[in-house]
Amino acid sequence: QRDYKLWLQYEKKNNPELVREYSSKISGIVSLENSESSKVALKELEVGLNDMLGKKIPVQSKIEGENLLVFGSKLSLDAEIQKKLSKDFEAINKDGFIIKTISHKNKKHIVITGKNDIAVLYGVFSFLRLVQTNKSIDNLNIVDSPKTNIRILNHWDNLDGTVERGYAGASLWNWQKLPEFIDQRYIDYARANASIGINGTVLTNVNANALILTPLYLEKVEALANVFRPYGIKVYLTARFSAPIEIGGLKTADPKDATVINWWKEKSKEIYKRIPDFGGFLVKANSEGQPGPQNYGRDHVDGANMLADAVAPFGGVVMWRAFVYSEHDASDRAKQAYSEFVPYDGRFKDNVIVQVKNGAIDFQPREPFHPMFGAMPKTPLMMEFQITQEYLGFSTHLVFLPKLFQEVLEADTYQKGKGSTVAKVVDGSLDNHKLTGIAGVSNIGSDINWTGHPFAQANWYGFGRLAWDPYLDAETIADEWIRSTFSNDENFIKPVKEMMMDSRETAVNYMTPLGLHHIMDTGHHYGPGPWVSDLGRPDWNPVYYHKADKNGIGFDRSKTGSNATSQYAPEVAKMYDNLATCPEKDLLWFHHVSWDYKLKNGRTLWDGMALKYQQGVDQVEEMVKTWNATEKYVDTERFKEVQMLLQIQLKEAKWWRDACLLYFQQYSGKQLPEGVEKPTQTLEHFKSLKFPFAPGN
Ligand code: BDP
After folding, report:
1. Does the residue 663 lie in any domain?
2. Residue whose CA is closest, atom 12 of ligand 1?
3. pLDDT tens, residue by residue, 422-467
4. I need a labelling partner for 416 at 20 to 30 A (CA). Which of 146, 246, 448, 507 fits?
5. Within this chain, do residues 473 and 618 fall inside the same structural domain, yes or no?
């Protein structure tokens, strides 16, 4: 099936000139090595080039002839070629690659190389992408290195096969059949990840189960690690802080207790004996009911450092999550992670990296960047994005997330003056950190198309590309993805790219315009629920976030309110504090303003908000039209699939618009402005909708 093949379609080129051009530069493939990874690379080149060029390209192990495509790691290259490339080798890091047209013994060849065979594999995929996207392979001179070390997926997969916030079927990991049964999907998964430079995967949910650390499961984890290894993908696990009690029979999990310390040391030793390249642990501690060091009067530093000591002898890392908020202090949830973690700056061990969500609340359609970025110069911080669309319409809404990711990465923290972007925090350049990383909460499941929505594949793809290079722009990513997934035809690319590029703002418009946030329905977060006010904790309720009343709407986080703005550098705080300079897209995130507040376009807030909701719906109508016009460029299967999904998206966009406007209208007491369609249902109707099953809950 087409959509199983993701962005690795390797569609046959129908332009004979192009085929001739490529063929003339690739008269043969020379594979210099025989490692598992180079076998993978060779197979990829053969499949890719043979399919795209429609003929079999001969493979050889020596450079004999001309116009050969030669690949192998540095040491496999002939000394003369190594010398020729010496400057380039100096310029790349461990995972970086070189793709270069060279002349060797008066013959032209293309060489793909790097310092090790995984880097070469990245180079091979990058080369194939050139051909996939119809780029020239004339006089190549590409020297590229990833800007972060840990480029990792976080699977929120449970041992019972369900996926928390997963909208693409069940977990890929079949724990029952492992270790003996190696599903082809594990291999295809690894291959897809390698093709975009992802080099790590956390197999298990952050809401962790200690069982994964028992021998029965470790044997299964080992089997997966063995499959992933040739693709350069390291396995990591979530560590349940109370595991020493639950599976170790200890009385405590106190990180200062000698038996606990020893238990984690022994456990780590056991894991590394099976999996010598095990990546390390990801930990959610003292957050949403998960156990942690605070259960024993210790703090996050004690907990993280104890685990860090356990894995340090083996080169492992601890990714300690900063997603914490306490029920005892619900005054402003947005402030809590910063308040709790920033004082720890400089106290974590070298192999600890603190994993911070992109925004201070929780993966909303739009959030200002998390104030922790740039605020802990002595601590490596890694980014946590959510690829799975928990708050973005699940896998039924087409929302191209690289736009969101880029917006966050480009944001300027001003922590070291102008230009201190989040990307510079993440790639370590702002504060000189060697340990760097980007995590993405996976949207992958057992669905044939992997991600539920064919276009959600682009979010996995885009995440990987941005993890490799946080400075890439979303448009380049969209272009690459469309070409390698669907078609190189400009008539298709142009409208579809525009549709993707606008899709995130579209979702913001019909869900949470002007800085609104967390007004999704209870628990499952499916559809609108701005009226919800009965959940156990105040900060779980939408009413806590929008604070609509007859005077206006919005959460005052400025200095006259919760003062969350003070957690940013002064330049940023000032910008957000001041109504005149606070970007309108973040208005209600930072301010409570009256329904009559004048927006920049001269409209009142109420009118402007209503029109935004309407605009969101109109934009989905446009998406439907755009897609319908692409029929002749796409296979029927994917065409139909997307067409049906867009109809759901349209229906749900209207649901969002009508439910939110009817609800807020009770407070504004104003009529809908002209241009906004009248709701066809009552507020009571929307409130009465119940979803005993919503996926991912
Ligand atoms: C929230 C999810 C919840 C996760 C939590 C987390 O609703 O399922 O467990 O974040 O990131 O977004 O730990």
Report:
1. yes
2. 362
3. 999 999 999 999 999 999 999 999 999 999 999 999 999 999 999 9
4. 146
5. no
Instruction: Based on the residue annotation, tell me whether 362 is a catalytic residue of this protein.
Output: yes
Question: Does 173 fall in a domain?
Answer: yes
Euclidean distance between CA atoms 626 and 630, whole angstroms: 7
Q: How far is C-alpha 189 from the geometric centre of its chain's CA atoms?
A: 16
What local confidence, expressed as pLDDT, does residue 132 receive? 98
Structure tokens at 283: 């930990």
Instruction: Decide: 591 in ligand 1 pocket, CB within 6 A.
Output: no
Reported as a single tens digit per residue, the pLDDT across 383-410 is: 999 999 999 999 999 999 999 999 999 9
* CA gap 4, 638 in Å, rounded: 11
Catalytic residue among 362, 427, 586, 652: 362
Q: Which CATH number does the domain housing residue 297 bear?
A: 3.20.20.80
What is the domain extent for residue 121?
2-144
Domain count for the chain, please give it: 3
Q: Confidence band (pLDDT; 50, 70, 90) for 285?
A: very high
**Active-site choice (33, 390, 447, 505):** 390
Q: Kindly indicate the confidence band of residue 655, based on its pLDDT and cuts at 50, 70 and 90.
A: very high
Burial of 254-293, coded b for 16+ CB within 10 Å and e otherwise, reads: bbebeebbebbbebbeebbeebeebbbbbbbbbbeebbbb
- The answer to ipTM > 0.95 is yes
246 is catalytic: no
Kindly state whether residues 270 and 386 are assigned to the same domain: yes
Domain membership flag for residue 362: yes
| Claim to verify: residue 636 and residue 551 sit in the same structural domain | yes
Find tokens 């380049």 and name the residue.
476
Instruction: State how far the Cα of 426 lies from the Cα of 341, in Å rounded to an integer.
Output: 17
For residues 101 and 175, membership in a common domain is answered with no
Q: Whose CA is nearest to atom 2 of ligand 1?
A: 165
For the segment 219-244, the average pLDDT, to the nearest whole number, is: 98
Do 131 and 155 lie in a common domain? no
Ligand 1 centre distance from Cα of residue 165 (Å): 8
